[in-house]
Amino acid sequence: MHGRLKVKTSEEQAEAKRLEREQKLKLYQSATQTVFQKRQAGELDESVLELTSQILGANPDFATLWNCRREVLQRLEVQKSPEELAALVKAELGFLESCLRVNPKSYGTWHHRCWLLGRLPEANWARELELCARFLEVDERNFHCWDYRRFVAAQAAVPPAEELAFTDSLITRNFSNYSSWHYRSCLLPQLHPQPDSGPQGRLPEDVLLKELELVQNAFFTDPNDQSAWFYHRWLLGRADPQDALHCLHVSRDEACLTVSFSRPLLVGSRTETLLLLVDESPLAVAWRTPDGRNRPSHVWLCDLPATSLNDQLPQHTFRVIWTAGGAQKECVLLKGRQEGWCRDSATDEQLFRCELSVEKSTVLQSELESCKELQELEPENKWCLLTIILLMRALDPLQYEKETLQYFQTLKAVDPMRAAYLDDLRSKFLLENSVLKMEYAEVRVLHLGHKVLQANDNTIESLDGVTNLPRLQELFLCNNPACSAPASRLLPQAGPPQPAGQPPVPSSGHLGASGRAAAFSSQQPHLRDSAPAPCPLTYWN
Amino acid sequence: MDNRLPTEFDVVVIGTGLPESILAAACSRSGQRVLHLDSRSYYGGNWASFSFSGLLSWLKEYQQNSDIGEESTAAWQDMIHETEEGITLRKKDETIQHTEVFCYASQDVDGNIEETDDLQKNPSWVASSTLIKPLDSACLSEEMHSLYVSSYEVPAKGTPENNGEVTDIAETLVKEEYCGYKTYKHRVSDGAKDEIKPILEDNSDPPKGNRITYSQIVEEGRRFNIDLVSKLLYSQGLLIDLLIKSNVSRYAEFKNVTRILAFREGKVEQVPCSRADVFNSKELTVVEKRMLMKFLTFCLDYEQHPDEYRAFTQCSFSEYLKTKKLTPSLQHFVLHSIAMMSESSCTTIEGLKATKNFLQCLGKFGNTPFLFPLYGQGEIPQCFCRMCAVFGGIYCLRHKVQCLVVDKESGRCKAIIDHLGQRINAKYFIVEDSYLSEETCSNVQYEQISRAVLITDQSILKTDSDQQISILIVPPVEPGACAVRVTELCSSTMTCMKDTCLVHLTCSSSKTAREDLESVVKKLFTPYAETEIDKEELAKPRLLWALYFNMRDSSGVSRSSYNGLPSNVYVCTGPDCGLGNEHAVKQAETLFKEIFPSEEFCPPPPNPEDVFFDGDDKQPEPLGANTIIIAQLESSEGSKNLESSEKHLQN
């Protein structure tokens, strides 16, 4: 029969394929070589554009070649007429698109496009937005493209409301989209700027409630999708609490003023300075950390000149102003006294920083109820359990203490992979709760007057945090898992403490639980700003 | 024109419905010489899609069919040898019954028709469905082909002095513009001259801009592709798999069904079935969302959790759903819209299996599990025919076969004799069952499918976009009756004109199509009228035109119930009532395996670069569209079908 079909055998096909690949490799290598030679010789002309486009067209991730192209384009910019340049730019944009089709997640390609568009006097931003929309239609989670879109939106001054509507449309299609939720978190504060008095990043309540409803819909639909929980966490805790000065202490003996902050801060860098007013007149002093290292710290000290401490006046007033955060505190040194101090009590201010910090506790309360509802339906969902724990913590750590501990139990059982992290979090909460209880009972945690810390019979493994206790003189560490660290790191400022414990005396140590929790929080990126060492322990007299 | 065909083939396929077309493609693909015939002037048989005028001609054909008596069968007698005998094939198609047409759209033609003052302007539903008893009682007695036709405005007692004149004008107009329609219309008038009156609009009330008139429908008739069977393709179904595997998919284009709807407590609602739907739903509370998602997630791998349903295997699925903390609306959604099962008869396991199947199809091409072929379901058989033709199959439409020639000694079929008296030899014969004679089928019992085709002015659930493709299951009012499946197509599916929707209703029959379906039509639609006051009624889409008919469902007939068929004659059934095309594909594959046990069924075609022709024979023919031979394409329908498939090939 005529016209009968014959099909090549698989061996024939394989051979043809192999030859083709060989040919490709040869071309690739020779083109690369030529480009490098030309670049070395400074021959940055259009032929380099041609050669690099051959290679980049097949492999857009060759970053050096993108650099090469930039050099060529920069040179041509000077040489060419505006018309020629326009044609060149048009070709370059087209070429970039073809590269993005080869690899829509190529760092080099997106970066090159940013660079090119940024140089154009009259870039067609509408077209770029359209390009982003197209690529995000194919892969709605392509963060390279999201990144580029934010660049374009900023350049083209797209109203945040339009961009928000865009994130809406993508979330509607598939809410498991970290980039889209994240973009919302950037856009919403822009759309609803709060009056100066409010902390940065807070949302008006109606907007907040609408977002909470949206995100609730997401995690009720699929509680195992992390993206919605992340956004939920942001909505409830997005506003960082303002920096505060917790404690001020002035010592006549040592001619020294000590300040403790609500979080580790770096004092002395350009704008963020700590002003000291002695009897309402500024005094220039040199601030230092207890361990002498210039890095963010809870505690900063300065030496005072004798004039500020003389006994002529009935009292001296020391006012410290933290310029960056607008926080200040004042303490008085009375005539005849050796020291003066001022500190917050647990009842005045939030002592411990919470993950969730929405002003209105009604919002937190209703979120807690929704989460509990979800937890009943999904008793084993770890995100839900963790959120409940954090909500309870933010609402009332003591009232919910028992419940929180039960939830920890459940959470550890359903998420054994993170048992150690949960143990740390639990221990941190317990410690904070103990401090709070004592504070509420007006019982000081430590005998401040004695400058002695009794820490026998604990599970303290390291003494790193002790450097934050500059006035500490005696530390008891009997019956703790000892650990060694250079003795010099311990309390260098106020003179070495007299270790009064039984041998073996630990030369260094730290208040384990909270320090470790902080370390873990950095390994667990989903827990933002886990709390640092609790403040009341940082200072006493 | 020489109509003579080659006389030697490996396989002769009679009928161009979906299973026959798949088989033809499979045979041709595996190197068989295939002759594919259809006595009709169009492809697809009962799987076909028609333009509006095409559909009217189709209706007319059934009307005429009933008038043609059995021709003498002696013509082929002298063509066969003494050692042979003939098995006659049926001359007329008897698979369609109880066709009834209703036109609601106004039939004015640009105000050319004089005003008739005393016509009823706002007739009730009852008036609109008044039947005009057809012509002669002979036709009625034949029953199978009685064509009931009614016009919209039919005053029971008209004004006789106007009647004749008006009818004539209307007839003339129609006659001038649409020849095909004329005869049809005329027949109606013949029988019912005193009662028929075309709808005329009061000229004092000029038509509003967006109102669709009947003449517009006729004018834009080519925009319609009206399916005889209403089916969808499951994204993970056998047909999709076959289309992809065999590369036939390149001849067709598809759109994803956009919505799954439910009809509950008199209201049409959208069923949230995908994750995105559930998330976006405004109707469900968050707890309902969780319960629904939880249940659906479980259904996806229910086999892994036998404890969850073991205790309920003896219960019905609806009973089982009641135990799953689902609210009544969610139970309705799962049972009727997702599992698409009946309340009374479906067991828990069947329900879980159907739900799983639905869910597995989700997300492959979009947010619903179904695809609809652009230009209608009728495209699919043609795509397979194209594949067959590409590999050398020969096509003849309007080619009747008089009889099968059987060798007495071996009992095998040797040849066919066509209507031209030509004898064509082959080894295997594949016949669609509507071609088999009454004698052959005397023991066969058939089911029936009730169908309605509606042209409406808007969607049954309006949203921002009017381009929606929806499927809706309306559960029966009385338990035990059949649910009615409604698919609504928008103009972007290339099956209807702009600003209209094409609605298909399907259920398995218990009575005539109209009796089975009219109650659902009334619930969802309101007849088109010029002055509509009732607000509630206004919310419903309005009917412009409606067709009811019953189609024979032979899908359950087993091969053994036919009398005296040779073993090398294979029978394909007509369309079944189901939503998917699984039955047709399975049937084609089974028959192919029976005929050619060692051949692969529709393997992927080779890469064009790897294909070359064996050069030692005659002049090689180039591959491609021009090898398709379509004989006897005088009919406009035939060329229309060819055009539309040509269009896709280019795409």
TrEMBL record, chain A:
<keyword id="KW-0433">Leucine-rich repeat</keyword>
<dbReference type="GO" id="GO:0097354">
    <property type="term" value="P:prenylation"/>
</dbReference>
<dbReference type="InterPro" id="IPR002088">
    <property type="entry name" value="Prenyl_trans_a"/>
</dbReference>
<dbReference type="InterPro" id="IPR036254">
    <property type="entry name" value="RabGGT_asu_insert-dom_sf"/>
</dbReference>
<dbReference type="Pfam" id="PF07711">
    <property type="entry name" value="RabGGT_insert"/>
</dbReference>
<comment type="similarity">
    <text>Belongs to the protein prenyltransferase subunit alpha family.</text>
</comment>
<feature type="compositionally biased region" description="Pro residues">
    <location>
        <begin position="494"/>
        <end position="506"/>
    </location>
</feature>
<dbReference type="GO" id="GO:0005968">
    <property type="term" value="C:Rab-protein geranylgeranyltransferase complex"/>
</dbReference>
<comment type="function">
    <text>Catalyzes the transfer of a geranyl-geranyl moiety from geranyl-geranyl pyrophosphate to cysteines occuring in specific C-terminal amino acid sequences.</text>
</comment>
<dbReference type="GO" id="GO:0008270">
    <property type="term" value="F:zinc ion binding"/>
</dbReference>
<keyword id="KW-0677">Repeat</keyword>
<dbReference type="Pfam" id="PF01239">
    <property type="entry name" value="PPTA"/>
</dbReference>
<protein>
    <recommendedName>
        <fullName>Geranylgeranyl transferase type-2 subunit alpha</fullName>
        <ecNumber>2.5.1.60</ecNumber>
    </recommendedName>
</protein>
<keyword id="KW-0637">Prenyltransferase</keyword>
<keyword id="KW-0808">Transferase</keyword>
<dbReference type="InterPro" id="IPR009087">
    <property type="entry name" value="RabGGT_asu_insert-domain"/>
</dbReference>
<feature type="domain" description="Rab geranylgeranyltransferase alpha subunit insert-domain">
    <location>
        <begin position="246"/>
        <end position="346"/>
    </location>
</feature>
<feature type="region of interest" description="Disordered">
    <location>
        <begin position="489"/>
        <end position="541"/>
    </location>
</feature>
<keyword id="KW-0597">Phosphoprotein</keyword>
<dbReference type="GO" id="GO:0004663">
    <property type="term" value="F:Rab geranylgeranyltransferase activity"/>
</dbReference>
From TrEMBL, chain B:
<comment type="function">
    <text>Substrate-binding subunit (component A) of the Rab geranylgeranyltransferase (GGTase) complex. Binds unprenylated Rab proteins and presents the substrate peptide to the catalytic component B. The component A is thought to be regenerated by transferring its prenylated Rab back to the donor membrane.</text>
</comment>
<dbReference type="GO" id="GO:0006886">
    <property type="term" value="P:intracellular protein transport"/>
</dbReference>
<dbReference type="Pfam" id="PF00996">
    <property type="entry name" value="GDI"/>
</dbReference>
<dbReference type="GO" id="GO:0005829">
    <property type="term" value="C:cytosol"/>
</dbReference>
<dbReference type="InterPro" id="IPR054420">
    <property type="entry name" value="RAE1_2_domI_C"/>
</dbReference>
<dbReference type="InterPro" id="IPR036188">
    <property type="entry name" value="FAD/NAD-bd_sf"/>
</dbReference>
<dbReference type="InterPro" id="IPR001738">
    <property type="entry name" value="Rab_escort"/>
</dbReference>
<feature type="domain" description="RAE1/2">
    <location>
        <begin position="449"/>
        <end position="577"/>
    </location>
</feature>
<dbReference type="GO" id="GO:0005092">
    <property type="term" value="F:GDP-dissociation inhibitor activity"/>
</dbReference>
<dbReference type="GO" id="GO:0005968">
    <property type="term" value="C:Rab-protein geranylgeranyltransferase complex"/>
</dbReference>
<dbReference type="InterPro" id="IPR018203">
    <property type="entry name" value="GDP_dissociation_inhibitor"/>
</dbReference>
<dbReference type="GO" id="GO:0005634">
    <property type="term" value="C:nucleus"/>
</dbReference>
<dbReference type="Pfam" id="PF22603">
    <property type="entry name" value="RAE1_2_domI_C"/>
</dbReference>
<keyword id="KW-0963">Cytoplasm</keyword>
<protein>
    <recommendedName>
        <fullName>Rab proteins geranylgeranyltransferase component A</fullName>
    </recommendedName>
</protein>
<dbReference type="GO" id="GO:0007264">
    <property type="term" value="P:small GTPase-mediated signal transduction"/>
</dbReference>
<dbReference type="GO" id="GO:0005096">
    <property type="term" value="F:GTPase activator activity"/>
</dbReference>
<comment type="similarity">
    <text>Belongs to the Rab GDI family.</text>
</comment>
<dbReference type="GO" id="GO:0016192">
    <property type="term" value="P:vesicle-mediated transport"/>
</dbReference>
<keyword id="KW-0343">GTPase activation</keyword>
